[in-house]
Amino acid sequence: MDFQGKVVIVTGGAKGIGLGAARKFAQGGASVAIVSRSGTADAAELLRDETGNKNVIGIAADVSKGDQAREMVRQTAEVFGSVDILVNSAGVQRYGTVVDTEEDVWDEVMDTNVKGMYLTSKYVIPEMRKRGGGAIVNVSSVQAYVALAGSAAYVTSKGAINSLTRAMALDHASEGIRVNCVCPGSIDTPMLRWAAELFKGDQTQEDVIDSSWGRMHPIGRVGTMEECGELIAFLCSDKAGFITGGDYKIDGGLLTSAAVVLPK
């Protein structure tokens, strides 16, 4: 896909799905700002070396903080001229029911996963108006539709992302700004591997990812961050010009299957 002349911000872009998306934009010739709390310089250098695109920078910022989100957008616009595309991929996963989730943990999840999207969008949209439009993709999860036990804060945050996406799409459609979200199943990212390590028991991390979690998906495996990057890039491209307010599953068929299995 061709993104020549486009300026892209990817939050959570130093690893995982965000890095997969940033790679696609860099390959397409976009000017890319990789935003994360840490690791941005290394990620930017990696993509510059991989793609030959020298217009990739790293900006260290906590997008759940208003002043840092605003300054990150200002820096991007100062370096590249404006902003055309925003990918909100910053996120954390924490486990617990509402009873055993501490208030500060709840706030951490909601601030990072939801408030961060609100803040980056708040400061990016005025830049998009200057360009006559733009595209935003929020990274949600299949857990916006179904709940994993013991994940109350995370599940709540992902449901909120889907609702925020619809609200933003409606509010800004007349300005030429499209807003969609992607809802991945199990994707091989550092976050997934952290969870696999946490719950592996007597298994290896690879067994949990490939055998246990992979088999839950009818397609027979977990997804890759590159596959998520492809979908995100398409939704931000001119080819998706009539698409807004949508939520798109990329889950290997995970949500097609009922929990009840008929006896053979």
Automatic annotation (TrEMBL):
Residues 6-193 form the Ketoreductase domain. One of its GO terms (biological process) is bile acid metabolic process. Keywords: Oxidoreductase. Pfam families: adh_short_C2. PROSITE patterns: ADH_SHORT. The keyword Glycoprotein does not apply. Coiled coil: none annotated. One of its GO terms (molecular function) is oxidoreductase activity. It comes from the Bacteria. The keyword Oxidoreductase applies. Belongs to the short-chain dehydrogenases/reductases (SDR) family. PANTHER family: DEHYDROGENASE/REDUCTASE (SDR FAMILY) MEMBER 4, DEHYDROGENASE_REDUCTASE 4. This is NAD(P)-dependent dehydrogenase (Short-subunit alcohol dehydrogenase family). It comes from Cohnella phaseoli.
